[in-house]
Amino acid sequence: MTPQASYQSEAQPLDAPLAPQKSRWEEFWLLFKRNRLAVAGMVIFALFFITAIGGLLLTSGVDPVLDPSLVRLQEKMQPPLTQPNLDSLSPGQAPYLGTYLLGTDELGRDVFARMLQGAWVSLTVGFVAVGISVLIGIFLGGIAGYYGQNHIRLDHLLLTGTLIGGAVMIAVGRITWGSGLLVFGSAYLLFLFFQSQRQIESLPPSIQIRTFTIDTLIMRLVDIMLCFPTFFLILTVVALLPASIYNIMVVIGLTSWMGTTRFVRAEFLSLREQDFVAAARALGVGDLRIIFRHMMPNAVAPVLVSATIGIASAILTEAGLSFLGFGVPPPHATWGNILSDGQNYIFDAPWLTFIPGIAILIVVLAFNLFGEGLREVLNPKLRER
Amino acid sequence: MISFIGRSIVQKTVTLFFVSVVSFLIIYLAPGKPSQIDPMNPKFTPEMVERFRKQFHLDEPLHVQYLLFYRDLFTGRTVSWKDNQPVLGKIWDRFLNSLPLFIVGTILTWTLSFPVGIRSAIFRGSTFDRGSTFVAYFLISIPGFFFAYLLIILVVTQLHVPVIGMQTFGLGDTSPVHMVMDRIWHLVIPSVLGATGGIAVLSRYVRGQMLEVEGQDYVRTARAKGLPSEEVHYRHALRNALLPFVTMFGLILPGLIGGSVIIESIFSWPGMGRMAYEAILARDYPIILTVNFLSAVLVLIGTFVSDVLYMAVDPRIRL
């Protein structure tokens, strides 16, 4: 072995790319577990998830194990942990666990079963509403941040107006006018397509003049949405629409995407100037791949944090709506309407108020603490101090 | 400066126009008609419905209704569909009822959150800091209506003071002192409840600002020249940490008209929030739309004021 070769063989490990000592997840976990409140929040979050899914399995179906809507008038308003009086109950009415774990309400329904049923409602409302708002937020924020500097042309604007106007007119009932507008719009769309294929001459520039930017459009939309008093708007829409849990999820989602849009836009504006994006573009990587593979993973941290906290506030909003009597129609239990029914018996049966109240408090607190813990770990600036 | 103000007024007027269109469309395109609110009521004959529709222009096309509605709003002639009272007058009455809640709540928020936030920033990591952090999260997370019941139970069973409504019913000719105390007791719990969320959020924000400023070089310099720590904290750090809060004076404006629906319905407080809630239940569109419009106006004025204030306080910002 020549000296040269031995030198090289020793140097080899140094030249080879060094993998980080710890993976990204290990490092994340090391930082995260120092914040004990956040870890507690995460554990409660996991427990809540399991409870809600278990609750769905146990309380739904034709013959559920724990029937949340079984009325036992002879056993009404029993405090938690009372034994049922088996003489007065028919065999099918006895609680599954042999005791009313959380008592019964004013109709003798098992509060434990109702709480389990309500957990699923809270969970789905939180996740679906935040899912909707995050999707809208990432989409609009991404467009505003990445394509924002492009201008919208006047003819595009007129085209959109024509198409929407036509659709509205057909919906209102003026079929002739509406279809006329739609046909005209589609004809122009076809014309634009051929124009982009360079097969025909372009129009005089006066109609294809550039107006405002896409960024302006989206950010003004955000401003408009921020003008509405959120809870009032949700209340109005939910009251006007037929009562259903899906309406609530969609409405909460549609009124809470503005923060995410702003975060994502700000992140994208700074990311698109960075070298790795320029490198990807120089390699000829397509826009969609740059957005979703290169930029999104770097922009997703603040979105994740605001989503966690958004789930907490969506659960609170749903509880508030149920409390006011909107939301899920009655036989179905949610934590908000258990509490709202229980308030009438606050001195005789305080557990009807306290059990759902404390459950909401704990779950929302867990989400908030978990979210704040994430924020601290994911944001290096906060971490150091 | 002038050009900024001009641009921003134009921009905000355009925003307001779109807000008015969107809220109008949301309300009018929702399923159900206001004239069908009570189909089982025998007094509601088809002729009545027809007259009702004519009186409130419900038989016109949508864009005409829109124009008529906002023309009426700006000339102050909008009337409630429920009782034919002028909407602006009704809102003004309820606004006066909500105002004490708003004022007391705001004072509580601003006077409590600053000391708490500053102290937990100065003694970072201390028991006080960790305690106040947890309490802040607790207050953010507790559902308002549940907290309201906790306080009601506490106050009614321990202090034996009345809490529901704006004043005790039938208190006719007692002494003025008694009357005033009665009003104050009724005011306390709803305004404390209204302030809790604000205190929690604002004190966290004050703490964050203060920590950021305490990490700056000029604070280290001040400490290095041997200034007493009070002077460093309050003269050097605090003054700079307060800057962003000047802008928040503008942002509390929208709270003037919101009122809390939930708190006002629990305490039977005849304020804005409850009026809006009743209007929603009765499909009283003029009131819903007017409240919405006014609150959008206040949001826009609030952001405008805060922009201008920020320019006035911070010489680095020249928009």
Shape verdict of chain A: globular
Number of strands of chain A: 2
Unreliable segments of 5+ consecutive residues of chain B: none
Structural class per helix/strand content of chain B?
mainly alpha
Order of helices and strands of chain A: HHHHEHHEHHHHHHHHH
Structural notes for this entry:
The complex is a heterodimer of chains A (385) and B (319). By secondary structure, chain A is mainly α. Chain A is globular and about 90 Å long. Helix content of chain A is 67%, strand content 2%. Chain A has helices spanning 3-15, 24-32, 36-59, 111-146, 154-172, 175-196, 214-227, 230-240, 245-254, 258-271, 275-282, 287-323, 335-342, 351-378, 380-384; strands at 151-153, 210-213. Chain A has 15 helices and 2 strands. Chain A has one domain (24-69, 109-382): Orthogonal Bundle (MetI-like fold), CATH 1.10.3720.10. A two-stranded antiparallel ribbon of chain A has the order 1-2. Chain B has 2 domains: 15-74, no CATH class; 94-283, MetI-like fold (Orthogonal Bundle). The longest helix of chain B has 39 residues, at 176-214. Chain B has 319 residues and is mainly alpha-helical. The N and C termini of chain B lie close together (7 Å). Chain B contains 14 helices and no strands. At the A-B interface, helix 7, helix 8, helix 12, helix 13 and helix 14 of A face helix 1, helix 5, helix 6, helix 12 and helix 13 of B.
